[in-house]
Amino acid sequence: MNPKNRFQAFLCILISIFIVILGVFSVTSRVSQCIDIQGDTTLMAACLMMNSGSFSSDNSSNESGKKVVKKPLDNNKTTTKTEKAVDTTVPKDEATYPITEVDLSSSKLYDNVSLRNTTSYTVDVKERLSRTLPFEISDTRQAQVLIVHTHTCESYMDSDSGFYYESFYPRTTDNEKNVYAVGEAIAKSLKEENIGVVHAKTQHDYPSYDGAYSRSYDTIMSYLEKYEGIKVVLDIHRDSMTTDSNARLKPTFYYNGKKGAQIMIMAGHDSSYTNFPTWEDNLTFALKLQNTCESMYQGMTRPLSFGDFTYNMNANSGSLLIEVGTDANTLDEAVFSGELLGNALAKVLQKS
User: Fold this and answer.
1) One digit per residue, pLDDT tens: the chain, 352 residues?
2) Bridge partners of 251?
3) Domain count across the chain
4) Is residue 327 in some structural domain?
5) Which of 48, 83, 118 is the endpoint of a domain?
6) Does 90 fall in a domain?
7) Rounded-to-integer distance, Cα 72 and Cα 317, Å
8) 147 φ, ψ to 5°?
9) Would you call 318 exposed, middle or buried from its count of C-beta atoms within 10 A (0-12, 13-18, 19+)?
10) Domain that holds residue 126
11) What is the CATH number of the domain that holds 238?
């Protein structure tokens, strides 16, 4: 190779070496920048891939030159939803109000019956209890008891906490958590005594609360037409009582060491007998059930409420409205009372 060609080859080698050194320097500078800023190999790779060759750190400057401080990335948090996950049943920042446990049973007028009479009619409890029921339950599994819920969505507390949150809303369409579950407990006890039962699932207070009694009456009539053997109609509700200081009252009793929700049986009155011709029969039935409940499970009942109202109890001579506990009782307490109520009702019907 002549000297000229050797010089050209040497010059090419020098230029190649210079280009390699320049490239290595550029890469090293960018990697160093990534390490200084984040110390994260993933971010280093991202730096090398940036078209502009620049890196925007979490502690960078904005266009005006002012430093902008951002929170560092937390690779342990996968989603925003996970970060915000909280127990919605325990709203720590909400106001709470007390639940006051009470015994609302009262002195008995006769035998095991206590009565709150708001009508002008004088009730002779002893004479009423001596009467026979206006219907008989036959020894068959044919449907003879209908259980409905005008306000199906009425619900209870989840636990016996002694307080409730301001946002507490005791209504739900979940039939495993509302008064329908109480109706199921009543039905189970009756079926165990070979008394046929049908339990209406219709939610008459959802989506609209207004007009629930009218819709419930239509349901009752449709069942009475379909099942001609029905003698008894129970409309099972849940009560609510709140004091001026926002304390909710929780009526309870104990049976065999287990806490239950006190119940209130209701019977209507119509002095004209126009819209409610069977009210006397219904009253007799209510008094007998009240007496039997208290005989079997002392303290279970609040005073029987006898007033100038109908509440669909004019459907037949065996129709009653029963409040099982309040919204301060737990679901377990209400279901337990439903079980005992079914037992007492079975005993009354078997004597008819």
Assistant:
1) 555 556 666 666 766 676 656 655 554 554 444 444 344 433 333 333 334 333 333 333 333 333 333 333 333 333 333 333 334 455 568 999 999 999 999 888 888 999 999 999 999 999 999 999 999 988 777 899 999 999 999 999 999 999 999 999 999 999 999 999 999 999 999 999 999 999 999 999 999 999 999 999 999 999 999 999 999 999 999 999 999 999 999 999 999 999 999 999 999 999 999 999 999 999 999 999 999 999 999 999 999 999 999 999 999 999 999 999 999 999 999 999 999 999 999 999 998 7
2) 102
3) 2
4) yes
5) 83
6) no
7) 74
8) -110, 125
9) buried
10) 96-350
11) 3.40.630.40
Residues 74 and 106 in one domain: no
Distance from the Cα of residue 329 to its chain's centroid: 12
Same domain as 260, residue 199? yes
At position 4, the amino acid (one-letter code) is K
**Tokens (6 digits) for 197:** 């039962």
Is residue 232 located within the same domain as residue 143? yes
- Look at residue 89 and tell me if it is in a domain: no
DSSP state of 303: P
Question: Could you tell me if 136 and 61 lie in one domain?
Answer: no
Asked whether residue 201 falls in the same domain as residue 336, the answer is yes
Structure-token pair, residue 186: 């009543």
Specify whether 134 is located in the same domain as 197: yes
Amino acid found at 189: S
Question: 196-199 and 248-255: which strand pairing?
Answer: unpaired
Q: What number of other Cβ atoms are within 10 A of residue 146's Cβ? A: 25
Q: What residue has token string 């509302």? A: 178
Contact 311, 325 (CB under 8 A): no
Strand partners, 68: 60
